[in-house]
Design brief:
The chain is mostly beta strands. Helices cover 1% and strands 48% of the residues. It comes from Streptomyces coeruleorubidus.
């Protein structure tokens, strides 16, 4: 999804909008690659490519086979795949990540081509905790550093660790959740970059330096070098960062942030997104510039990628990489091969309240957008949904020539609108927009309208719902909204799916 270009030629920040948290970026020659967390969704770890740090194209998902990623139905939402680190060393790409589900742990996969295929997992049982990082020192020794912050020597080709993990440096005194460590050799120092304060409003980035990758480390006197805590900045929760050099040799930081909307306390609905911020160096310490909603004019040539089409006709044998499913995607439940030019979903769980429901969607990436799909539910029931987790979702479902809108918020589940429709395929739609004025302290971040499109193209709205109930501040967790298709009973076919930004 390309960034939005402003009238003055600048680009909007985030550079990868929507639920794309915990970015890890590496540069290989003139190319940049970036990986993100994926939690309960399959395939896991979306992977992006760029030539300019601004335009990012998803080229695949690292964990795209059942042999690489097993997420049991018993695993709760916001479990699964946490915080990868992506690096290039000795002619190969290396990615280390934590599978936070039963039977999981830290694993390493490798590839010569980042678009895949990636190897089967190399498990590293001696690596504790989450947020693992990889770095190689001058003699080729690989060090793995994890949240906490502790470090252990690792052979990433076998998963074997040597010695016991030892503590390094854990950020500011009393700061909670020291995590997301990344080690770099820059100039005369090794730098240890971490997140602290938790991934909520208190999030921040701190750094220390030492002469060896094992320390000792001295903290930067200006820590935290980045935080928006206690400010009215439109980008909040800033943290979990990685450093990279731009094409002109300048330094930049890729990090996560959120865009809260509405009144108090502010609700973010797209999840944690990937932003860029400029970095300068003063006395061998990084100084982070503003995480601006618009990027400054950049001094290097820009390299736009292909423009994403609004409509997917499901004409390919495999789904495009932006499509994600819940926990797995067995071919007997999700396929484009059964009816050519259609996506076929065969039900398993009976509703979106259940963890094994058959659901395939894409991340909501714009604050205002419209999604539509043509559904043939002659052999079952299903429809179009806006999902945050099993307890927070809105959907419009068709069954037996009747559509209904269902809202699930916490323990409450209710039908909020219904209408008969003619037999045969029907177009279902959802539109997400800014709430009507006037705005007050209790105004939600957006409104979600669900309805049916008539044959003449007019949209019949069946329900308009407050978007705050599909936000992290209400539901908790680490993900963002995903809009997609599901089957609740029998077999449901989808001819096409549209996703259209409305905010630029």
């Amino acid at each position: 999804m390309p960034p939005l270009r402003q009238p003055d030629g600048r680009f909007a920040n985030p550079v990868i909008p929507g639920f794309h948290p915990d970015p890890s970026v590496c540069r290989v020659g003139d190319d940049y690659y970036l990986a993100c967390s994926s939690f309960e969704y399959f395939p896991g770890v979306p992977l992006f490519h760029s030539r300019d740090l601004v335009h990012w194209t998803q080229i695949g998902n690292v964990l795209d086979r059942p042999e690489q990623l097993r997420l049991p139905a018993s695993m709760p939402s916001s479990g699964g795949i946490y915080a990868p680190t992506l690096r290039h060393h000795d002619g190969r790409f290396w990615l280390i990540v934590t599978n936070c589900s039963e039977g999981g742990g830290n694993l390493v996969v490798t590839a010569t081509d980042p678009a895949g295929p990636w190897s089967d997992p190399i498990w590293a049982p001696g690596v504790p905790g989450i947020d693992p990082d990889l770095v190689w020192d001058e003699d080729g020794t690989c060090w793995c550093t994890v949240a906490g912050v502790s470090q252990v020597r690792l052979d990433p080709s076998t998963g074997q660790t040597y010695g016991t993990p030892h503590r390094l440096w854990s950020g500011g005194p009393g700061a909670k959740a020291p995590e997301a460590p990344h080690l770099y050799r820059i100039g005369d120092y090794w730098y240890l970059l971490i997140a602290e304060g938790g991934t909520e409003r208190g999030h921040g980035v701190s750094i220390a330096r030492g002469r060896t990758p094992q320390g000792p480390f001295e903290p930067c006197p200006a820590n935290p070098i980045l935080t928006h805590r206690g400010t009215d900045h439109p980008v909040q929760n800033t943290g979990h960062a990685d450093l990279v050099q731009a094409p002109d040799g300048s330094w930049w930081m890729a990090l996560l942030g959120v865009r809260p909307g509405g009144g108090t306390p502010g609700w973010h609905v797209l999840g944690r997104e990937t932003f860029l911020a400029p970095v300068t160096w003063v006395d061998d310490w990084p100084v982070v510039g503003e995480v601006a909603p618009e990027l400054p004019e950049l001094p290097w040539p820009l390299s736009p990628g292909p423009v994403e089409e609004h409509r997917d006709h499901f004409e390919l044998a495999e789904l495009r990489p932006q499509w994600i499913s819940l926990r797995d995607r067995p071919a007997e439940h999700c396929t484009t091969k059964e009816r050519p030019g259609w996506l076929t979903l065969r039900a398993r769980g009976g509703s979106l309240d259940e963890s094994d429901v058959v659901f395939t969607g894409r991340r909501q990436q714009h604050l205002s957008c419209r999604a539509r799909t043509l559904v043939d539910a002659a052999e079952g029931s299903g429809g179009l949904a806006v999902r945050l987790d099993e307890r927070h979702h809105y959907e419009i479902e068709v069954s037996d020539a009747r559509v209904r809108v269902v809202a699930r918020v916490g323990d409450l589940r209710t039908v909020v609108g219904a209408q008969s429709v003619p037999a045969g395929p029907v177009v279902l739609g959802v539109t997400i927009t800014e709430p009507p004025s006037p705005h007050g302290p209790c105004t939600g971040p957006d409104v979600v309208s669900l309805g049916v499109e008539q044959p003449d193209g007019t949209f019949t709205e069946l329900a308009t719902l407050d978007g705050r109930y599909l936000s992290t501040e209400v539901a908790g967790g680490f993900t963002g909204r995903v809009i997609g298709m599901y089957a609740a009973a029998g077999t449901v076919h989808f001819d096409w799916f549209d996703y259209e930004p409305l905010d630029g």
